[in-house]
């Protein structure tokens, strides 16, 4: 470890992605010759070639491939450690990035407003999360925490306070046989083709959003976003279960939302990475819990 230079490692990681000295330099804001210098210094430190360069292409050596596979997770963990230390040093003040699924309704906005009132030096950025990827933004570090549909059974994520629990409705086309009904029982969904999320949403999560009460008469369509799902519904390609607030928010003339009795409520909860808990995350979780408790009491 004597004399180890982080800049050399960063240069190697970027070059391994780009396989082009010029593009690597552009990403690192250094010259192409400086990329070559940093790589040469790292190779000298290791004692072997990591990269082969010809007039036509750049590629990693066998040792370079192995070094990359071992270096990347260690470097990512080091970067995460620095980020956690910075967040802890800054405390609650600063930017809090919050993801949400479905609808940023009045309850979520009340929690954000309460958080901002308690911490006026903080800023909350709200980011919509794709229906079919409830946990990706949290894992990738694009958001600090997210309000997502339950269940959550991910070992690397923490489930914090439950944010909302609402009855289910069935979104159907105005041409669907259920369109004129005032309500439905859960058993009546048997044989109905329910639109579901496609991967990368986990299988257990997809099943919870589109439960199979009985074999359907047609294969269910799979969608990435809520808007894709509603468009499929409007085209009469299937029906889609949505919580009541989301149904009310997404009112449209070609879709009818019919209440469904006998299904578990749709539940939202706050999640964050187990290794990404900061003072901001904990404080926002406390605010969400307090806001939810106030709503229940009211």
Automatic annotation (TrEMBL):
PROSITE patterns: HTH_LYSR
Keywords, alphabetical: DNA-binding, Transcription, Transcription regulation
One Gene Ontology cellular component annotation held by this UniProt entry: protein-DNA complex
GO MF: DNA binding; DNA-binding transcription factor activity
One Pfam family from the record: HTH_1
Claim: Membrane is one of the keywords in the record: no
Span of domain HTH lysR-type: 4-61
CDD domains membership: PBP2_LTTR_aromatics_like (cd08414)
Domain of life: Bacteria
Family affiliation: Belongs to the LysR transcriptional regulatory family.
Protein's name according to its UniProt entry: LysR family transcriptional regulator
